[in-house]
Amino acid sequence: MIHVTKSVTVMKPRAEVYRFWRQLERLPSFMIHLASVSEVSAIRSHWVANAPGATKVEWDAEIVDEREHELLSWRSCEGSQIPNAGKVRFSDAPADRGTEVRVELNYDPPGGTAGAALAKLFGEEPSQQLTDDLRRFKQVMETGEVVLSDGSLFGAGEGASAERPAQAPAVGVRS
Predict the structure, then answer these.
(1) Which residue from 98, 114, 127, 157 has the least number of CB within 10 angstroms?
(2) Domain spanning 2-161 has what CATH number?
């Protein structure tokens, strides 16, 4: 199992941040590796993720612990393509600076250690993905959208394999 922990501070009240995250179908709006999340019941959901090589992986998950405005904990259901578990904690940030969102993720990558190395090679390393996801989550919560530009990794295609090479500016010829 791979273990990743990351956090971000969002300048919004904890209840608002929790409510947004708790609507699992919204997660693909800032987690670009997710194609979709469908809530099947109050505690069950179906996840579809984009995988290397234009493939998709799917799994079902269930919420195993929930404390409103404080904690959301889940695990994948038996037989999932990607066994995983994790939790998201929501706490008041110091000095009235919004909400600290802390994500802990454990998962068994497809293909084991070799699969994890291949994912890293293609810019799909889980620690960096989670950092990028949380940065986009902060943007969505604070501005209402993910900010795109050619200067950002997301605007340029995100990930080492999708980055564009730098190009010299066009030079005008004077006569």
Answers:
(1) 114
(2) 3.30.530.20
